[in-house]
Amino acid sequence: xxxxxxxxxxxxxxxxxxxxxxxxxxxxxxxxxxxxxxxxxxxxxxxxxxxxxxxxxxxxxxxxxxxxxxxxxxxxxxxxxxxxxxxxxxxxxxxxxxxxxxxxxxxxxxxxxxxxxxxxxxxxxxxxxxxxxxxxxxxxxxxxxxxxxxxxxxxxxxxxxxxxxxxxxxxxxxxxxxxxxxxxxxxxxxxxxxxxxxxxxxxxxxxxxxxxxxxxxxxx
Length: 220
Known about the structure:
InterPro entries: Bact_OuterMem_StrucFunc, Gly-zipper_YMGG, OMP_bac, OmpA-like, OMPA-like_CS, OmpA-like_sf. It is found in: Cell outer membrane. Residues 103-220 form the OmpA-like domain. The structure is a single chain. The protein is of the alpha+beta class. The protein has helices at residues 2-16, 32-52, 56-91, 112-115, 128-140, 158-178, 203-209; strands at 24-25, 98-101, 106-111, 144-151, 186-190, 211-218. The protein has 2 domains: 31-74, no CATH class; 79-218, CATH 3.30.1330.60. The chain is built from 7 helices and 6 strands. β4, α6 (158-178) and β5 form a beta-alpha-beta unit.
């Protein structure tokens, strides 16, 4: 029971570290997330170990084991995300595509201007090779699930924008599936104009809000 409790503590620490790591664009330092994940996982694992201990030496033993398990789990997740982000960013052709390592997941941000013509949900041929690159990367890292999320600016009705964002997300997800990514790993949905990342009062802000994001989330 003691080992089981500590394994749970270590696993929880690896999940909990995701809430403690600030959002940041992928750094040139390939070990950034590995170190952050290991340190945060160790701290949380040790804390949970203490909480599950019965007293004195038992708490200390559990803190040590919980910290070690948390560090290993958190470090592994961070290392895999660092490596996957670095590989993907290096292989993409269009420099306007951003790979953001958020500590618990990768966010691939693709501006709608390179994906679709105005008011269209048909993916333009010029960007499909980069989507195939994303698919190849996903196939090399199978222990992840994928969410494809469409976003728009606030031009037009909210109902229209919601529908357009859903169709655009579905179109991108369809290409990933056609490139060999298991359909069971992929979910797609639209958020319309509800999640802007910039002001819709300027043309530049609206352009930033029109995007599709591919979230790559570790599952183990």
